Amino acid sequence: MNLLEKLTSLSKRRGFVYPSSEIYGGISGIWDYGPLGVELKNNIKNAFWKEILQKNENIFGIDAAIVMHPKVWEASGHLESFSDPLVECKKCHHRFRADYLKENFCPDCAGPLTTPKKFNLLVETYLGVVEGEKLKTYLRGEITQGVHVNFKNILNSSRAKIPFGVAQIGKAFRNEITPGNFTFRSREFEQMELQFYVKPNLEESFRWLDYWKEKRFNWYLKLGFKKENLRFKEHQRDELAHYAKAAFDIEYLLDGEWREMEGIHHRGDWDLRRHRDFSGEDLTYFDEETKEKYLPYIIETSGGVDRAFLFLLADAYFEDEINGEKRVVLKLNPQLAPYKVAVFPLLANKPQLIKLAREIYKNLKNEIMTVWDDRGNIGKRYRFQDEIGTPFCVTVDFESLEKNDVTVRSRDTTKQTRIKINQLNTFLKDAIKKETIDF
Ligand code: ATP
Asked: Are strands 370-372 and 341-345 parallel, antiparallel or unpaired?
């Protein structure tokens, strides 16, 4: 089994990610996040929001709608250019992305292929109640456009002054020809983005591109990614998207293959210019300093939440041996881990132990994401918590009843320490902070 297969299986077994609508056979490229998955995903999104929005004074947030006026996609160029080359096998009629095939025949049955056709990735939908008069529109193929069509609203309702940015997190939809590699290529996924507006000056705008490239790369390091598994890839001229002047991807190395996690793009004034031309609205910015009117340039950072999620699992996954026994452990950054602490009574059938352990659990739960576990024996509980990435386990034993202390065991070192119950919350909060680079 390669790592991606191991992660797919662990995710389902432990409740990170399930195939969507599984009881009906699933649906290709669509996934549901389970109880642990939703925690990890929210922690990633909160970390992004804190880094981009909270820590900067010139960044504003937005949460635009998924369904937009169909003209948006005409203006943005998606109706014309948002496509991948599709080929079909003439024998078995399976369909493939032509640019992903190594040979010019069907990988499933070796049959001959049609010539490549442009296949548009936008997902169509229809609004309205009268048959024949329904409005055909699209589920957004990227969250970006929701920001640019609101450029004027944001300027008029905030004190935004260039350079400034707009951050957004939300769902996007693409009718991918070949979804797969677990959640890596999904048809419904989430993006976390920053659209940063700067003066339309090439030199200055490229300085901002460098600035955000570095910032974004360092953020992934702060999340805990190993540096050797991350790299930049620059897009060559012929690889650039229709709107881009320059583009870099942050890539992650998984199962020996470099895969895109985030794109950092110089979009020029493409989006504002096109929306100005298509809507007829004046989308220029008046610069009070220079008394000039202009369409700003846009530097964009566009990351996939699901891809960061998947790569974090991959980066954190270890198999090791403790006292001759194999274990799987997710060494997730404690600030991202779904649960920070698990509390156990040493034995599940001793009322005094349970009473004290429940008190400790409830007390911790008010301040830290904590889980209760009294199934099986202690060894099994440790294995279980290791596999879901819980950094600390607290055990209440008979000594606890006399000495008012508990055992705290670390996921990464498996070392155990006794801590006084009245110091436990502070000890754990400090340990969670200390074990990670603060973000
Ligand atoms: P790819 O080349 O992998 O198709 P892209 O270059 O089309 O990706 P962008 O349009 O730049 O991707 O989107 C920005 C980010 O959104 C990507 O870096 C990725 O993290 C995420 N993303 C794009 N498509 C998908 C998808 N089908 N499933 C999950 N995440 C995606």
From this structure: parallel
pTM of this structure: 0.95
3-state class (DSSP) for residue 132: coil
Tally Cβ neighbours within 10 Å of residue 216.
Answer: 23
Q: Could you tell me the sign of the dihedral formed by the alpha carbons of 231, 235, 240, 244, in that order? A: positive
Are 400 and 185 contacting, i.e. CB atoms less than 8 angstroms apart? Answer: no
**CA separation (Å) from 154 to 48, 54, 62, 161?**
21, 18, 9, 10
The finding on whether 307 has its CB within 6 A of some atom of ligand 1 is yes
Computed over every residue of the chain, the mean pLDDT equals 94
Count CB-CB contacts under 10 A for residue 231.
13
- The tokens describing 202, both together, are 């090439």
**Amino acid letter, 109:** C
Position in ligand 1 atom list of the atom nearest CA 305: 20
**If DSSP codes are grouped into helix, strand and coil, which group holds residue 113?**
strand
Q: Which of 192, 307, 312 to probe ligand 1 with, by most ligand atoms within 8 A of CB?
A: 307
Is the Cβ atom of 385 under 6 angstroms away from ligand 1?
A: no
Q: Which residues contact 225 (CB under 8 A, 6 or more apart)?
A: 252, 311, 312, 315
- 376 closest CA partner among 350, 399, 344: 344
pLDDT digits (tens, 9 = 90+) for 343-389: 999 998 899 999 999 999 999 999 999 999 999 899 999 999 999 99
- Cβ–ligand 1 contact at 260 (below 6 Å): yes
Which residues 6+ apart lie within 8 Å of 101 measured at CB?
A: 87, 107, 113
CB atoms within 10 A of CB 419: 16
- Torsion on CA atoms 47, 48, 53, 58, rounded to nearest 10: 140
Q: Prior bond to 107 cis, omega within 30? A: no
